[in-house]
Design brief:
12% helix, 4-stranded antiparallel sheet, 199 residues, 10 strands
Length: 199
């Protein structure tokens, strides 16, 4: 049995993956978006890139069997399982302090950008930037005219996505703290999520 690790509500966690290992990201309560990044081990300037992935896949959302590609156009992860309805997002940047100011927040607000840096720092690493994440379980419908909207997740409790490492890498997961828009459910209560490293 693979050990289950907690991504605390509003916080981030990072883990080393060797090529061939997988990480299973579990939406424990069913309504929690998990921002996801991957950096190549030993060269953090190469990282999973949503714009390069969209070009490689010629689609907006990866599906089972699809690769996720770096800014050097190498496959770093492959989505091997997805028990959810498949609503994930590759378009929206990670939330940050500036985003919450624009949403009217006056004090400091937990955010995925800071979670990325804190999670990497816990491993003694500093990422060169905050790339656009793969927003697992985030429901951002788009219209033919190009409109976007922030909608509640369609996930059920226990739904998960499994990603296989195609390169030695560091995967970072953030249980998104967004509690103003309904992306973590209409109740606006971010929760913990979980992950397993599968050998």
């Amino acid at each position: 049995m693979d050990m289950t690790n907690t991504i605390p509500a509003r916080r981030g966690r990072a883990a080393h993956l060797r090529r061939g290992q997988s990480i299973r990201v579990i939406n424990t309560h069913g309504e929690q978006v998990v921002d996801t990044w991957a950096f190549t081990a030993g060269m953090l300037t190469e990282f999973m890139s949503m714009e390069h992935t969209r070009a490689a896949l010629t689609k907006l959302v990866p599906r089972v069997g699809d690769g996720l590609f770096t800014n050097r156009r190498r496959r770093i992860l492959t989505m091997t399982e997805d028990t959810s309805a498949g609503h994930h997002d590759t378009l929206i940047a990670a939330c940050d302090s500036h985003r919450y100011v624009l949403l009217g927040v006056k004090e400091y607000h937990d955010n995925c950008t800071d979670n990325l840096f804190a999670a990497m720092q816990a491993l003694g690493l500093t990422p060169p930037e905050c790339p656009a994440p793969l927003n697992l379980f985030m429901n951002i419908p788009w219209t033919p005219s190009g409109g976007l909207s922030f909608e509640p997740p369609t996930t059920r409790p226990g739904d998960y996505v499994t990603l296989r490492a195609e390169l030695d890498c560091i995967v970072v997961l953030s249980a998104c703290p967004q509690d103003i828009l309904p992306i973590n459910g209409t109740a606006g209560r971010p929760t913990e999520a979980h992950f397993q490293i599968i050998h």
